[in-house]
Amino acid sequence: MPLADLKVLRRIRAAAQGRDFTSQERETLARIKPSRTYPRPKPSLRPYEGSIALLPLAQFYTRDIPDLRTPAGTDLLQVLWCPFDHPPKSYMPKTVLFWRSEAEVTNVLTAPPEPPAVQYQGYLPEPCLLLPEQITEYPHPSVLSPDILSLLDDWGRWEAAGDVVDSRYASYPAEFYRINLCVAPGWKVGGWASWGLTDPIPQSCPTCDTEMNPLLTIPSAEWGSSDRGWIPCELREPAIPTRGGEPRLDQPAAIQIGRGYKQQLYVCPASPEHPHTELMQ
Q1: Which range (35-39, 69-73, 82-86, 99-103) has the least confidence?
Q2: Is the pTM of this model over 0.85?
Q3: Which pLDDT score, from 0 to 100, does residue 40 have?
Q4: Exposure letters 91-113 (e unless 16+ CB within 10 A, then b)
Q5: 214: which DSSP letter?
Q6: Helix (H) or strand (E) holding 147
Q7: How many domains does the chain have?
Q8: How are beta strands 94-100 and 188-189 bridged, if at all?
Q9: Which band of pLDDT confidence, cut at 50, 70 and 90, is reported for residue 46?
């Protein structure tokens, strides 16, 4: 989709929250997204000549995230991505990491270059502010030993923890761990990896073969219907429903990976300067 059309689409939907579209808005939407016809025509694709500008995805400072391990002389991580799939290896945006020194960033572009189009609407990040909060989480059940899993399935041990455990989980205590304690959903720097689309897959550094660590989780949503306990207290009040395609409280960046998955970035603990890897989960 042309980037200019997508921005107009989002702007119209945001302006029309709580009211019907005007006739002019309907005409514009019909031009940008005409009604589907069946059989659907095969899209006409042609190679794009020239370079494609990357889109800014996220920016992190070590002053906000002290645990962020950066190369010597840097205190800032900027993550950009190409808003197109890169088959056959990757069916999600390809990311690029820039480790920089905040003091050396002097010429800030007020209007950075943009690509002419994006492959999917969910590949255009909506500008929003990240408010880092340090939390405690635990490993995904699929990487725990059978002995630990049996302990998690013992309701008596959970009862000994007191009122912090919801009694509704008495019949399936291990679910309390899976939903409320392990692998926090949402945007996350570091922490434990999320699994589910596949079994755990060790990530090895392509340069030195060292086992890599999770760097960043890019989710399609901040939370889901089964893990609402992770919703920040200030966002638990009912909100006005949004129109399709518009950012919601659980999708402030309006990003979607695949059919609602996560994109995980891994870095080498031996050297953050080694190439990073990407994984969809």
Answers
A1: 35-39
A2: yes
A3: 64
A4: ebbebebeebeeeeeeeeeeeee
A5: E
A6: helix 146-152
A7: 1
A8: unpaired
A9: low
